[in-house]
Amino acid sequence: MTGTTLDYHHDSMSLRVIEAIASETNTDAHELDPLYYVVDPEALDQLFQSDSSAPVRVEFEYDGLLVEVRHDGTIAVDGTVHRRG
Q1: Residue-level pLDDT at 65
Q2: For residue 66, which of 1, 11, 19, 59 sits 20 to 30 Å off, Cα-Cα?
Q3: For residue 63, which of 77, 75, 50 has the smallest C-alpha distance?
Q4: Residue 53 half-sphere exposure, CB side, CA atoms within 13 Å?
Q5: Distance between CA 79 and CA 15 in Å, rounded?
Q6: CA separation for the pair 28, 15 (Å, rounded)
Q7: Which residues of the chain, if any, have pLDDT below 70?
């Protein structure tokens, strides 16, 4: 059986969002409130794993920060861009 292995630190949009917020706030990711308090992480992951070429963009507020997730994998936290590394 062949397939691809999901690397959650690079492929999971919800974890990438948490890492971007942690970086922006200089906080350990484990100390942040769960993302599911403001957005469904599974839905976010599914939306951005889609093969669709539609220009998807999701915005939400997390602990007073404006978070924007773009179809190209870019995450902006209060205007600071965090690109896929």
Answers
A1: 97
A2: 11
A3: 77
A4: 0
A5: 19
A6: 13
A7: 1-11, 50-52, 85
